[in-house]
Design brief:
Blueprint: H1 3-21, H2 25-45, H3 49-76, H4 90-105, H5 124-134, H6 136-157, H7 168-178
Helix pairs in contact: 1-2, 2-3, 3-6, 5-6
EC number: 7.1.1.-
Family: Belongs to the complex I subunit 6 family.
Membrane topology: Multi-pass membrane protein
Length: about 180
């Protein structure tokens, strides 16, 4: 491993840890942008320029903007929660993190879990048939999940009743809650 590869690995790990440990969601999204940019640099260094540019345009651009949009919507409607809604999911999260770590470390142990298809350096001519052929369902599912997440975020911040239907006293209370 060259010093540049080690530096890229450390920066990827550092920004990844920042993404999941920062308490401010905006700062975590900025760390995610940094992670995506470092990964794009690795793609370019591996002679996969197309993948590097797509990483910047799609992920560091569009996907993170979508995340920030959802974060801003959720912060706009954030109320006081009297309990921690993530308590039940912590064991599952730890189990998933362990699984991901084992898959990532399998490369160090010599276990080959990678696909054997030659992507010719990430050229569009090699990626197109793969994405729109073998992986079409996965591509559509990811697009649907992103759309569904955005729709759910917008639905979560919508008021239950329009302000016009409220009495003057209820309007005053509603405005105080929003502040």
């Amino acid at each position: 491993m060259t010093p540049w590869e080690a530096l890229a690995l450390l920066l990827l790990l550092f920004t990844g840890v920042l993404v999941v440990t920062l308490k401010n969601a905006i700062h975590a999204a900025l760390a995610l942008i940094g992670n995506f940019l470092i990964l794009a640099g690795i793609y370019v260094a591996l002679e996969a320029r197309f993948l590097g540019f797509i990483q910047i345009i799609v992920y560091a651009g569009a996907i993170v903007v979508l995340f920030l949009f959802v974060i801003m919507l959720l912060y706009a409607a954030q109320g006081e929660v009297g309990f921690d809604p993530l308590v039940r999911s912590r064991p599952l999260t730890a189990l998933l993190a362990l699984g991901v770590a084992l898959v990532l470390l399998s490369g160090l142990w010599g276990v080959n879990l990678a696909f054997t298809k030659d992507l010719q350096g990430g050229l569009p001519q090699a990626l197109g048939p793969l994405l729109y052929g073998d992986w079409l369902f996965v591509l559509l599912a990811v697009g649907f999940l992103l759309m569904a997440a955005t729709v759910v975020a917008v639905a979560l911040v919508q008021p239950t009743r329009p302000l016009d239907a409220l009495s003057p006293e209820e309007r005053k209370e509603e405005k105080e809650v929003v502040r």
